[in-house]
Amino acid sequence: MTDRLSIALAQINPTVGAITTNIDRIRDARAEAAARGADLMVCPELAVTGYPPEDLVLKPFFLDVVEQAVRELAAETADGGPALLVGAPWRDGDKRHNAALLLDGGRIAATRFKVDLPNYGVFDEKRVFTPGPLPGPINVRGVRLGVPICEDMWSADVIETLAESGAEILVVPNGSPFELGKHDQRVQLAVGRVTESSLPLLYVNQVGGQDELVFDGASFALGADCRLVAQAPAFTEHLLITRWERGEDDVWSCADTECVAPPEGLESIYAALVLALRDYVTKNRFPGVILGLSGGIDSALAAAIAVDALGAERVHGVMMPSPHTAQDSLDDAAESAELLGCKLDTVPIVPAMEAFERMLLPAFAGRDPDATEENIQARSRGVTLMALSNKFGPMVLSTGNKSEMSVGYATLYGDMCGGYAVLKDVYKTTVYALARWRNAHQTEGAFGPAGRVVPERVLVKAPTAELKPDQTDQDTLPPYDALDDILRCLVEKDLGVAEIVARGHAPEVVDRVWRMLHLAEYKRRQAPPGPKITPRLFNRERRYPITNGFGSIA
């Protein structure tokens, strides 16, 4: 019977579908784990394919490649080095499972299948996987390990079964995406499972961006007394070594190791946005990004995130003035680019506006100017950015925020165009808070400069689309602090009018915001993807019909 076991938690950043690259990452981490004396290395959920693989797992030839890669990796464990616990989609007869596979001694020594398949929020695993049976422990170097997979930890049944069948340590592979406050929720949930089972628990989480999701890592371990004994840093790849020893009471304890507190609040949001954008651009092989720098808060913050994610040399700003663009806006855009060190070009859209005016004059005869002409300006800017993107290769970075996307205060095929909307899930009030935070701090691993990166005037002037003279956002929208509170009630909490009015909002304002939210659904369906940071991301988690006759929330 073994009395000591060293377990490495491999917090890696896989790319969905890049099986060879992911296997190489696992192989490199195993070499480091071996050098540091590990007996077992644990990888995140579905680390071989990346998480979530979605409908890739419906393709038999994809699963063929997965199986071949896993078997080749298993053969390498005949070298006497650490055993591997890797996640992969796996076939059992005609069923597809979300599996944890123990590779040891040159073979696949054990398989365990995920029992509780999540089918809510961003998850839809029941579409592609079959749930497994309640599992028993697996034997690793003489120690019985219970292996609940991600969601299996969120309810008591799987861990209760493992404890009753003799598990000594719980090892949980995860693909748990970030949202604000999620890390504390995970730890508290793990504490509950440890309390119920009296078993220590190791939690290894994926890190990295994958389309709308960003995984924060922040892997950790709890002793049987619920004490946090190990904590990996968040938002970066890391190999966390934990060394366990069996006590006289047969309870395993962990020797002191590293504990790095994860970021919280605005710092965690900013780090998530930086990582999400970096991985979206890099994994999709764009040379960089191009964005409209308008002199406003949204584009200034988006540019700062882009420079922190990619470096100034991969960020190209474009100021596209119209006759309504104030000198302050020109100056603020220039200052943003100067503070960040990124390229800024100026491409006036006046010739495009005049061309459209001449072209449409006969069709518009007898009609007064209205929002149509305003939208032509926004679409001229969109065409300009897309032309530069097509010619030189960088991805267009959309700069719209969640407040605007909620109520349709954005132009379809104009400022909504782009490959990625980094602020898509960030309310306007949070945009301001993040900009102020970034001016005073710098996230670890950022490529941008320290110190102020958003001009001070941008933080204090009234936000405006500058599509007509003396325009401000508040001509059309309620003040952003009120608007964002109403939107959080409608989008994240599904509250009705009476409940929202009780928070101090006028009934007519709540009803108007609801109607704008409802009418903008068709726009949001055509918006670019963007990273999730709140409990409910548009399109991926909040799915409402476009054609919708329900007109009251009372």
From TrEMBL:
ATP binds at G292, L293, S294, G295, G296, I297, D298, S299, T399. It catalyses: deamido-NAD(+) + L-glutamine + ATP + H2O = L-glutamate + AMP + diphosphate + NAD(+) + H(+). The keyword Secreted does not apply. One of its GO terms (biological process) is NAD+ biosynthetic process. The lineage of its organism: Bacteria, Pseudomonadati, Pseudomonadota, Alphaproteobacteria, Rhodospirillales. Catalyzes the ATP-dependent amidation of deamido-NAD to form NAD. Uses L-glutamine as a nitrogen source. One of its GO terms (cellular component) is cytoplasm. It comes from the Bacteria. One of its GO terms (molecular function) is NAD+ synthase (glutamine-hydrolyzing) activity. The gene is nadE. It is an enzyme of class 6 (ligase). This is Glutamine-dependent NAD(+) synthetase.
